[in-house]
């Protein structure tokens, strides 16, 4: 399945836009209860206005709130971002720290966020257990755990460390595009052969194909061998 996921999503990546660890930390805080797309609409102006942790720490609250308002929960997020900026200045000389222990000690940074920062800004392998990741690995029988930390450890034992970050992206991509929470596209899923949960969603290929989302849809349907998709049309001549 790990190999199939790599075939399905060779270019999987963090879908938040950022240029440095601080921007990523802020973007992840903004992504709570909000789509990555919406966050990416807000961050160019935000990152142009605030460039350092000190900038966030000393921000004008009303101005910061206004900039991030479209992401929802903007008052809480403003508190979190200002506190984060202050802590990075006070405890780490303005640099986002590079270890899980130091990151999770920062306000607003949980284990999931810390792993996103380590994996994507610092190239330290990390498993990001979000709601998609947890749901999919349970569907695949990789673990029965529901606690994110236990899931992280269970999957960490199954998959080589160097693959953790890319695996996280790929699993999350599959959760967003194919293996949805309520109606997974089982009949159009390239993992169906290996998936013990095949059938929790529609198994009819045409019906399932309509549930697949995202820019890679044609590639994903072809991999799954859905009739009428690019590959099968090509094979038919
Ligand atoms: S077969 Fe269904 S449950 Fe299994 S990974 Fe695919 S979409 Fe998800």
UniProtKB/TrEMBL annotation:
Gene3D superfamilies: Helix-hairpin-Helix base-excision DNA repair enzymes (C-terminal), Hypothetical protein, domain 2. Keywords: 4Fe-4S, DNA damage, DNA repair, DNA-binding, Endonuclease, Glycosidase, Hydrolase, Iron, Iron-sulfur, Lyase, Metal-binding, Nuclease. Binds 1 [4Fe-4S] cluster. Residues 30-177 form the HhH-GPD domain. The keyword DNA damage applies. It is an enzyme of class 4 (lyase). Its EC number is 4.2.99.18. It comes from the Bacteria. InterPro entries: DNA_glycosylase, Endonuclease-III-like_CS2, Endonuclease3_FeS-loop_motif, Endouclease-III_FeS-bd_BS, HhH-GPD_domain, HhH_base_excis_C, HhH_motif, Nth. It catalyses: 2'-deoxyribonucleotide-(2'-deoxyribose 5'-phosphate)-2'-deoxyribonucleotide-DNA = a 3'-end 2'-deoxyribonucleotide-(2,3-dehydro-2,3-deoxyribose 5'-phosphate)-DNA + a 5'-end 5'-phospho-2'-deoxyribonucleoside-DNA + H(+). GO terms for biological process: base-excision repair, AP site formation. It holds the Pfam family HhH-GPD. The keyword Coiled coil does not apply. [4Fe-4S] cluster binds at residues 179, 186, 189, 195. One of its GO terms (molecular function) is 4 iron, 4 sulfur cluster binding. Its cofactor is [4Fe-4S] cluster. Belongs to the Nth/MutY family. NCBIfam families: nth (TIGR01083). DNA repair enzyme that has both DNA N-glycosylase activity and AP-lyase activity. The DNA N-glycosylase activity releases various damaged pyrimidines from DNA by cleaving the N-glycosidic bond, leaving an AP (apurinic/apyrimidinic) site. The AP-lyase activity cleaves the phosphodiester bond 3' to the AP site by a beta-elimination, leaving a 3'-terminal unsaturated sugar and a product with a terminal 5'-phosphate. This is Endonuclease III. It comes from Longimycelium tulufanense. The gene is nth.
């Amino acid at each position: 399945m790990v190999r199939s996921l790599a075939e399905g999503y060779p270019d999987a990546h963090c879908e938040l836009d950022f240029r440095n660890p601080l921007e990523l930390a802020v973007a992840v805080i903004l992504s709570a209860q909000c789509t990555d797309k919406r966050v990416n609409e807000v961050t160019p102006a935000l990152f142009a206005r605030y460039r350092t942790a000190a900038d966030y720490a000393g921000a004008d609250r009303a101005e910061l709130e206004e900039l991030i308002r479209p992401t929802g929960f903007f008052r809480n997020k403003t508190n979190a971002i200002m506190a984060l900026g202050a802590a990075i200045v006070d405890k780490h000389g303005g640099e986002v720290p590079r270890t899980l222990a130091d990151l999770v000690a920062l306000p607003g940074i949980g284990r999931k966020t810390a792993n996103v920062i380590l994996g994507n800004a610092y190239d330290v392998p990390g498993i990001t257990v979000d709601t998609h990741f947890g749901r999919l690995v349970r569907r695949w029988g990789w673990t029965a755990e529901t606690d994110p930390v236990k899931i992280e450890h269970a999957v960490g034992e199954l998959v080589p460390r160097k693959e953790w970050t890319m695996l996280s992206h790929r699993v999350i991509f599959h959760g967003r595009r194919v293996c949805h929470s309520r109606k997974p596209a089982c009949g159009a899923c390239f993992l169906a052969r290996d998936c013990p949960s095949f059938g929790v969603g529609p198994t009819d290929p045409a019906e399932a194909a309509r549930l697949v989302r995202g820019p890679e849809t044609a590639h994903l349907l072809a991999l799954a061998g859905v009739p009428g998709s690019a590959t099968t049309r090509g094979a038919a001549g």
